[in-house]
């Protein structure tokens, strides 16, 4: 009977694991549906504008050439930024923020929560960490087994910690964070430009079809819907883009706008706000010629950020980045020498 029960439990466990894998596979497939919808609408708009409007409806050759040139510039920049926003992997914390083997062993052996918090606090002294959990403790991810850098959060969809996480966007099927936030902003801006150009150039032919100056045909349907779709997307993008422009100006992420980061002196929504110019440079870089090109130019590596109330020159860890990087490197070497990692369970 015992062997039968073991076999039954084993088969049930295997069935549950198979169902779990199948559900995750379905989730990954369904997560691409919003991207497919956007891509389909864009491809249809390309056909409708280039063929039905420019080649079928327009009669002026000069106007057709000008429209096609500007349209393709907008279309290429839109596709480029959308591609970068989708396929740029989100950055995750480096190994310097993982506990060494000895620290993990010491943490796991300790059963008192207060002492565990003190262990994490002692380790964090070697790292450029200034934010805290709501309880005042060092922010530690028990799923990724990592001390969270400032502005880093765990994404339940990506199942990992993301540096300077803003939000998980279903329309790009990716987590928007430090590595692709610039691309996401450019995607929104070029989407708006694309919609404005399409709507402004289609409008006069929309009126001509509406009043009957142009003959009915397949082009009429495409031109009418081009205007409605372009205006609809522009209005929705305008509010989203405006909101993110405000976030950039204040140097906040979407998560920080809803829940202020906590420092040693308490919550502060403006803790990372270092002025408009420096806020822009953190996202777009110092070279203004590259601001509107979808290449990575953001400052830093996403693990630490200047604080409004603390100058870098006043903080030895930030003033001498090589110091804590070398310390982190030595920790990794000691971890490799001591042996494999140990899984930690914590309620923090």
UniProtKB/TrEMBL annotation:
<keyword id="KW-0012">Acyltransferase</keyword>
<dbReference type="GO" id="GO:0019706">
    <property type="term" value="F:protein-cysteine S-palmitoyltransferase activity"/>
</dbReference>
<feature type="domain" description="Palmitoyltransferase DHHC">
    <location>
        <begin position="138"/>
        <end position="258"/>
    </location>
</feature>
<feature type="transmembrane region" description="Helical">
    <location>
        <begin position="29"/>
        <end position="47"/>
    </location>
</feature>
<keyword id="KW-0472">Membrane</keyword>
<feature type="region of interest" description="Disordered">
    <location>
        <begin position="323"/>
        <end position="348"/>
    </location>
</feature>
<dbReference type="Pfam" id="PF01529">
    <property type="entry name" value="DHHC"/>
</dbReference>
<protein>
    <recommendedName>
        <fullName>Palmitoyltransferase</fullName>
        <ecNumber>2.3.1.225</ecNumber>
    </recommendedName>
</protein>
<dbReference type="InterPro" id="IPR039859">
    <property type="entry name" value="PFA4/ZDH16/20/ERF2-like"/>
</dbReference>
<keyword id="KW-1133">Transmembrane helix</keyword>
<dbReference type="GO" id="GO:0000139">
    <property type="term" value="C:Golgi membrane"/>
</dbReference>
<feature type="transmembrane region" description="Helical">
    <location>
        <begin position="183"/>
        <end position="207"/>
    </location>
</feature>
<comment type="similarity">
    <text>Belongs to the DHHC palmitoyltransferase family.</text>
</comment>
<feature type="transmembrane region" description="Helical">
    <location>
        <begin position="67"/>
        <end position="87"/>
    </location>
</feature>
<keyword id="KW-0808">Transferase</keyword>
<dbReference type="InterPro" id="IPR001594">
    <property type="entry name" value="Palmitoyltrfase_DHHC"/>
</dbReference>
<keyword id="KW-0812">Transmembrane</keyword>
<dbReference type="GO" id="GO:0008270">
    <property type="term" value="F:zinc ion binding"/>
</dbReference>
<feature type="transmembrane region" description="Helical">
    <location>
        <begin position="219"/>
        <end position="243"/>
    </location>
</feature>
């Amino acid at each position: 009977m015992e062997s039968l029960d073991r076999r039954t439990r084993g088969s049930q466990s295997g069935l549950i694991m198979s169902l779990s894998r199948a559900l995750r596979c379905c989730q990954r497939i369904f997560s691409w549906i919003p991207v497919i919808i956007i891509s389909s609408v864009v491809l249809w708009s390309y056909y409708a504008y280039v063929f039905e409007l420019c080649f079928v409806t327009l009669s002026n050759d000069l106007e057709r050439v000008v429209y096609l040139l500007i349209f393709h510039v907008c279309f290429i920049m839109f596709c480029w930024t959308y591609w970068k926003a989708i396929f740029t992997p989100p950055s995750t914390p480096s190994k310097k923020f993982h506990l060494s083997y000895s620290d993990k062993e010491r943490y796991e052996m300790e059963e008192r929560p207060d002492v565990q918090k003190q262990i994490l606090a002692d380790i964090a002294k070697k790292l450029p960490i200034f934010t805290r959990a709501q309880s005042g403790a060092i922010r530690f991810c028990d799923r990724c087994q990592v001390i969270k850098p400032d502005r880093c959060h765990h994404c339940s969809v990506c199942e990992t910690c993301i540096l300077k996480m803003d939000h998980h966007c279903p329309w790009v099927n990716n987590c928007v964070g430090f590595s692709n936030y610039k691309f996401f902003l450019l995607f929104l801006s070029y989407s708006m430009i694309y919609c404005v150009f399409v709507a402004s150039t289609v409008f006069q032919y929309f009126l001509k079809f509406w009043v009957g100056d142009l003959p009915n045909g397949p082009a009429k349907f495409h031109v009418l819907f081009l205007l409605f779709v372009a205006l609809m997307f522009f209005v929705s993008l305008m509010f989203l883009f405006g909101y993110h422009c405000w976030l950039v100006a204040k140097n906040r992420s979407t998560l920080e706008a809803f829940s202020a980061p906590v420092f040693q002196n308490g919550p502060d929504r403006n803790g990372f706000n270092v002025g408009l110019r420096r806020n822009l440079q953190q996202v777009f870089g110092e070279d203004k010629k590259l601001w509107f090109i979808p290449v990575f130019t953001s400052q830093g590596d996403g693990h630490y950020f200047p604080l409004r109330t603390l100058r870098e020159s006043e903080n030895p860890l930030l003033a001498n980045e090589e110091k804590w990087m070398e310390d982190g490197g030595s920790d990794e070497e000691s971890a490799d020498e001591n042996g494999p990692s140990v899984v930690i369970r914590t309620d923090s």
